[in-house]
């Protein structure tokens, strides 16, 4: 995403996800409580066997997530509250809001803020981290054009800086090179195509921006530890 407008708590009732942000990948299995602050760019890849179900509560940006020291709550799995009881609380809040009754909605808000106060005791804090505007522009271009062929100098030209400067910023802020980031995006898109379509691997390689099926196979294995064909075979085994 380009950055959430609202902060969010999410409880995963069914399925699991990988959240990628600022060069880090966070695993959130079934039963996890997730927190995502407003303004943070992230990508998520969800899997379910067979379903995905998540309850989310979105909050308008506010000062509750920051304190006077300048710390804030980063994107994270709140392990101390990743419990069935949290799932029950979220479902109760949803139920109260769905009635449309004013008193019920006030009760839902009261339950939410009580939950927020408890969650804050279990959440990690860190100094505010943000994307350099050049990196943000580069990421936006990659996200929109990953399926097309372009070089790092082409990307740098789009951002009006040198290729070496783009490389330096990506390494500093994301912990990876621009090429590694591009390949990561392409592999995520390819994995989704493999999982949710009947396209051939040759077709998937082409539509996700890889120059050849052999290069697609090489990069996919480097990122996942298995080939695209093995990944598809594993999906067939799961469904069976």
Structural features, described:
The protein has helices spanning 84-98, 102-120, 133-145, 152-159, 163-174, 178-196, 201-207, 213-224, 228-239; strands spanning 7-14, 16-21, 24-28, 33-36, 43-47, 53-59, 71-72, 76-77, 126-127. The protein is of the alpha+beta class and 240 residues long. A four-stranded antiparallel beta sheet has the order 6-1-4-8, with helices on one face. Strands 3-2-5 form a three-stranded antiparallel beta sheet, with no helix packed on it. Strand 2 (16-21) and strand 3 (24-28) form a beta hairpin. It starts with 6 loop residues before the first strand and ends with a helix.
Task: Give a topology summary.
Layout: E1 7-14, E2 16-21, E3 24-28, E4 33-36, E5 43-47, E6 53-59, E7 71-72, E8 76-77, H1 84-98, H2 102-120, E9 126-127, H3 133-145, H4 152-159, H5 163-174, H6 178-196, H7 201-207, H8 213-224, H9 228-239
Antiparallel strand pairs: 1-4, 1-6, 2-3, 2-5, 4-8, 7-9
Strand content: 15-25%
As a whole number of angstroms, the C-alpha radius of gyration is 20 Å
- Count every beta strand, where a strand is a DSSP E run of 2 or more residues: 9
Main sheet strand line-up: 6-1-4-8
Helix content: 40-55%
Following the backbone from N to C, one meets helices and strands in this order, namely EEEEEEEEHHEHHHHHHH
Please outline the major beta sheet.
Answer: 4 strands, antiparallel
Q: Distance between termini?
A: 33 Å
Q: What's the rounded overall pLDDT mean?
A: 86
């Amino acid at each position: 995403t380009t950055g959430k407008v609202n902060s969010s708590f999410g409880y995963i009732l069914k399925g699991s996800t990988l959240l990628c942000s600022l060069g880090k990948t966070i695993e959130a299995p079934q039963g996890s409580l997730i927190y995502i602050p407003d303004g943070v760019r992230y990508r998520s890849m969800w899997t379910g066997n067979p379903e995905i179900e998540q309850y989310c509560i979105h909050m308008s940006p506010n000062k509750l997530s920051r304190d006077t020291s300048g710390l804030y709550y980063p994107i994270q799995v709140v392990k101390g509250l990743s419990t069935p009881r949290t799932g029950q609380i979220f479902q109760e809040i949803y139920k109260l809001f769905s009635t449309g009754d004013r008193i019920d909605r006030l009760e839902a808000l009261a339950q939410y803020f009580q939950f927020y106060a408890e969650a804050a005791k279990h959440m990690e804090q860190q100094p505010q981290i943000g994307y350099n505007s050049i990196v943000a522009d580069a990421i936006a271009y990659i996200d929109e054009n990953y399926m097309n062929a372009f070089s790092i100098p082409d990307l740098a030209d789009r951002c009006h800086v040198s290729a070496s400067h783009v490389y330096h910023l990506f390494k500093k802020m994301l912990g990876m090179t621009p090429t590694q980031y591009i390949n990561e995006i392409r592999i995520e898109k390819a994995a989704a195509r493999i999982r949710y379509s009947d396209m051939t691997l040759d077709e998937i390689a082409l539509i996700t921006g890889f120059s050849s099926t052999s290069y697609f196979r090489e990069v996919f294995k480097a990122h996942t530890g298995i080939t695209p064909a093995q990944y598809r075979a594993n999906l067939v085994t799961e469904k069976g």
